[in-house]
Task: inverse folding
């Protein structure tokens, strides 16, 4: 069957879904809350099943054109001197050949270019109500229109409105991993930070990383432990980050001084979404809305693209049976998404250890990573071939 689909969200999951459904002969309408494409973001490693899907969907060349080179990883002490460095060749070997480093916003840009002429995208619009029966799903939008379709895809991220409207309140599905994340882009590297490198300091349950993304720009990346994520969220990045990093040395004061000038700051609790079934009737969730694996696992973009590709394939295979397609799609994808969620939960304790002994233990395999047998072991442990 081919029909009409409403896709909520023009992120990586939503735009990939629109592209794949369009290629399968569907007519998607994309509804996005933001007034335009959100170009902002952080650098991600794009690999695994999403890389293969991107190749099938014809967007791999575009992604490769925008890829940023792998960088050295430099671990610093609070005074800024180097503790140890992992050369980029080792980083590349760890990531494997079918993998690229790219800004999140650039993945969206490539997808947007691939769909913009072929798919209607309504910006500054959100869903207000959803009704469905055996024949169709009806969505009332904030622009006052009511749109009827054969399928509604909720690709509206971690705080999905589609999930809230159809599946239930967010708290039911939220699993906190006890950390906050903040990211913003800066013009120019802070003083003394190495070029062409990702430099980081972890101390007292907090990590600050400076990721050089080329063209003189870098991403400042904050990740810290907390047992009160809601209070941190209520305070917002402008109060929470300076408080959490108050006595951190290195470039923390210089980076924090630029926080108020940043174009946009991504700030959120690191939490997964555990949703027992990803579809209800003709409504399906995809991407972070359905399974958010978190940055600890690091495969969110990849799962979003692969999920879209497999969804298109399932709809092609099942003809008129939309529910059958959604259920076989979920059966195929769920084991992989759950493996990545487990990986995220395993890795969280290693991310910003509060105690120096754990930090030393965490860093030990990284220091040894330059040795080929260790690289091989790490690849298997971190599911980097996944
Ligand atoms: C710091 C960080 C580092 C990461 N590193 C990696 C990595 O190395 N590798 C990797 O693969 N992944 C990584 N990820 C994860 C990855 O970025 C996400 O999993 C991926 O972008 C998910 O995309 P999405 O489209 O599901 O959600 P989102 O990117 O959140 O997109 C949702 C879209 O829906 C829109 N929207 C939201 N609400 C509404 C509404 N009510 N109505 C209409 N539109 C709405 C939003 O504006 C947005 O455009 C990282 C994530 C973070 C935070």
Result:
């Amino acid at each position: 069957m081919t029909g009409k689909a409403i896709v909520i969200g023009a992120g990586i999951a939503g735009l990939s879904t629109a592209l794949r459904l369009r290629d399968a002969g569907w007519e998607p309408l994309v509804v996005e809350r933001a007034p335009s494409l959100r170009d902002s973001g952080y650098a991600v490693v794009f690999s695994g099943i999403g890389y293969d899907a991107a190749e099938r969907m014809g967007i791999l060349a575009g992604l490769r054109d925008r890829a940023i080179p792998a960088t050295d990883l430099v671990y610093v002490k609070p005074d800024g001197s180097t503790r140890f460095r992992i050369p980029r060749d080792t980083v590349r070997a760890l990531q494997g050949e079918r993998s690229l480093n790219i800004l999140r916003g650039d993945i969206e840009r490539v997808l947007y270019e691939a769909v913009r002429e072929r798919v209607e995208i309504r910006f500054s619009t959100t869903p207000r109500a959803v009704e469905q029966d055996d024949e169709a799903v009806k969505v009332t939008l904030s622009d006052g229109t009511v749109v009827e379709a054969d399928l509604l895809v909720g690709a509206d991220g971690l705080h999905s409105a589609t999930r809230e409207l159809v599946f239930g309140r967010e708290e039911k599905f939220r699993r906190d991993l006890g950390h906050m994340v903040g990211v913003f882009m800066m013009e120019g590297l802070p003083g003394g930070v190495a070029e062409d490198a990702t430099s980081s300091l972890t101390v007292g349950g907090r990590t600050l990383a400076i990721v050089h993304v080329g063209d003189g720009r870098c991403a400042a990346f904050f990740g810290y432990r907390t047992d009160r994520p809601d209070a941190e969220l209520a305070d917002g990045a402008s109060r929470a980050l300076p408080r959490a990093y108050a006595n951190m040395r290195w470039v923390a004061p210089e980076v924090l001084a630029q926080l108020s000038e940043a174009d946009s700051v991504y700030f959120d609790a690191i939490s997964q979404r555990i949703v027992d079934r990803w579809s209800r009737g003709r409504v399906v969730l995809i991407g972070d809305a359905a399974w958010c694996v978190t940055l600890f696992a690091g495969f969110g973009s990849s799962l979003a693209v692969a999920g879209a590709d497999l969804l298109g394939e399932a709809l092609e295979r099942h003809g008129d049976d939309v529910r059958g397609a959604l259920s076989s799609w979920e059966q195929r994808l769920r084991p992989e998404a759950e493996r990545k969620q487990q990986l995220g939960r395993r890795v969280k304790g290693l991310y910003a250890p509060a105690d120096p002994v754990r930090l030393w233990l965490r860093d030990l395999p990284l220091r040894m990573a330059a040795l080929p047998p260790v690289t091989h072991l790490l690849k298997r442990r971190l599911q980097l071939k996944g």
User: Anything to note?
Assistant: Residues 43 and 103 are 4 Å apart (CA to CA). Residues 8-14, 31-34, 38, 42, 44-46, 104, 126, 155-158, 161, 181, 183, 287-288, 295, 298-302, 304 surround flavin-adenine dinucleotide (CB under 6 Å). The chain has two domains: 4-68+99-173+272-349, 177-271+351-381.
